[in-house]
UniProtKB/TrEMBL annotation:
Family: Belongs to the glycosyl hydrolase 1 family.
UniProt name for this protein: Beta-glucosidase
Single annotated GO MF: beta-glucosidase activity
Lineage: Bacteria, Pseudomonadati, Pseudomonadota, Gammaproteobacteria, Vibrionales
Taxonomic source organism: Vibrio chaetopteri
Keywords from the UniProt entry: Carbohydrate metabolism, Cellulose degradation, Glycosidase, Hydrolase, Polysaccharide degradation
Catalytic site positions: E172 (proton donor), E354 (nucleophile)
SUPFAM superfamilies per record: (Trans)glycosidases
Signal peptide from the UniProt entry: none
One BP term from GO: cellulose catabolic process
Reactions that this protein is recorded to catalyse: Hydrolysis of terminal, non-reducing beta-D-glucosyl residues with release of beta-D-glucose
Length: 451
């Protein structure tokens, strides 16, 4: 029987440590035309030829909109403590000022079911599905969108209040801003240096404006933000500055304003010509205290200076990679957490809100042998334990993802699930990694029962 092993005495064996699985609305729900939902920027983006592999889109995805009940029961069968999901803004406010009660009711059924089964819910308000009508007015390049987000946060938190155990304002603002408005490979597909940095400031402002609203409406819940973070390593000693810069541009840019109330100098200097317009008072708003930060970790980067002094990536061809082409580097998770702890003296608790591997998994006679993912998850759990042992305050871990789903510009080819989805029949099959996760959680719960 596959089972992940946690070291004896590991804090992750304590019942307070939260284990969960994560998904996001556009990636699993489907039913894009049902329940009063309006288009999001991803619906529009997917319609543009060549933007998404195979011309895939989220119209059906995992049909979770209809299969949600069996999905929540399946999550419960894994023995997790919590489910991390996101709410689709276009389902809640399909028109600017018209709240769609059908949308709220859909998520309420999910939340109630999770609670009835004894699981906590971690809800992200923005996992990239901006209503298209806001993009039509400039999207995240328009400062107004930050205020629209605060209004949306008000609607959701007034309705759910403390019923949502943990609120997340944004998932991975780096990706929304830079893949969406700088390099153009994500919706809405904008390309431009200044645009990416401006979008990032408006996203952070949105986070900051929403924080007091969430605290007011849900005083007993936890409130925070989730970052993707990639630690960078120099190819050799002479490249140390390159790695430092990449750390700054990749995650300090998004964490410093929230945790220190300033943007990192390194980036401001290098990007001087593209600096976003920061109004007086913005950084005070953005740096409102958070109860936690979430970290999504997948891989590392290795960099060097080229002959022109530009920074270039150094491919690690000797290392093992997952199907999506990302190097498997568990030590990076330990290093990243240690680096973050040393950079931010008032660091709140951390959750690992995503970690996982993409594989080209096949279901053969009812079995999915995802050997690489099992190794990946086991090694990352041990790397996380090392960080905790060295003093980093981590409260939980969520596997990405519960099930195979719409992997953005890669469509359905890349499978991140610990549960296999047959997109023809919508049949779910636990992969060996899900079974190993479940067995570890069962063993932990037995151990905690027996004291
Ligand atoms: O699928 C995504 C998720 O939506 C955000 N974090 C990274 C995952 C894998 O690419």
């Amino acid at each position: 029987m596959p089972q992940f092993q946690l070291p004896l005495g590991s804090k992750m064996r304590d019942p307070q440590f939260v284990f969960g699985v994560a998904t996001s609305s556009y990636q699993i729900e489907g039913a894009t035309k049902e329940g009063g939902r309006c288009d999001s920027i991803w619906d529009t983006f997917c319609r543009q030829p060549g933007k998404v592999d195979n011309g895939d889109n989220g119209d059906i995805a995992c049909d979770h909109y209809h299969l949600w009940e069996q999905d929540i029961e399946m999550i419960h069968s894994l023995g997790v403590d919590a489910y991390r999901l996101s709410i689709a803004w276009p389902r809640i406010l399909p028109e600017e000022d018209a709240v769609n009660v059908q949308g709220l009711a859909f998520y309420e059924r999910i939340i109630d079911k999770c609670h009835a089964l004894g699981m906590k819910v971690y809800v992200t308000l923005y996992h990239w599905d901006l209503p298209q009508y806001l993009e039509d007015r400039g999207g995240w390049l328009n400062r107004e969108t930050a205020y629209k987000f605060a209004h949306y946060a008000e609607v959701v938190s007034r309705y759910f209040g403390n019923k949502i155990d943990v609120y997340t304002t944004l998932n991975e603002p780096f990706v929304s801003a830079f893949l969406g408005y700088r390099w153009g490979m994500h919706a809405p597909g904008v390309v431009g240096e200044s645009e990416g940095l401006l979008a990032s400031h408006h996203l952070l402002l949105a986070h900051g404006l929403a924080m007091p609203v969430l605290r007011e409406n849900a005083p007993d819940s936890l409130h925070g933000i989730v970052y993707n973070a990639t630690p960078f390593y120099p190819e050799s000693e002479k490249d140390e500055g390159a790695a430092m810069y990449k750390d700054a541009a990749n995650y300090h840019w998004f964490m410093d304003p929230v945790l220190k109330g300033s943007y990192p100098e390194l980036v401001l200097e290098r990007e001087y010509a593209h600096k976003p317009m920061v109004l007086e008072g913005d950084l005070e708003i953005i740096s409102a205290p958070v109860d936690y930060i979430g970290i999504n970790y997948y891989s590392r980067g290795v960099v060097r200076f080229d002959e022109n002094g530009d920074i270039e990536s150094v491919p690690q061809s000797e290392s093992e990679h997952t199907d999506i082409g990302w190097e498997i580097y568990p030590q990076g998770l330990t290093d990243l957490l240690v680096r973050i702890k040393s950079r931010y003296p008032n660091l709140p608790p951390i959750y690992i809100t995503e970690n996982g591997a993409a594989g080209n998994d096949e279901c053969i006679e009812g079995k999915v042998d995802d050997e690489q993912r099992q190794r990946y998850l086991q090694q990352h759990l041990l790397a996380l334990d090392k960080a905790i042992e060295s003093g980093v305050n981590v409260h939980g871990y969520f596997a990405w993802s519960l099930m195979d789903n719409f992997e953005w510009a890669f469509g359905y080819v890349q499978r991140f699930g610990i549960v296999h989805v047959d997109y023809q029949t919508q049949k779910r099959t636990l992969k060996q990694s899900a079974i190993a996760y479940r067995n570890m959680l069962l063993a932990r719960s037995e151990e905690n029962k027996n004291g």
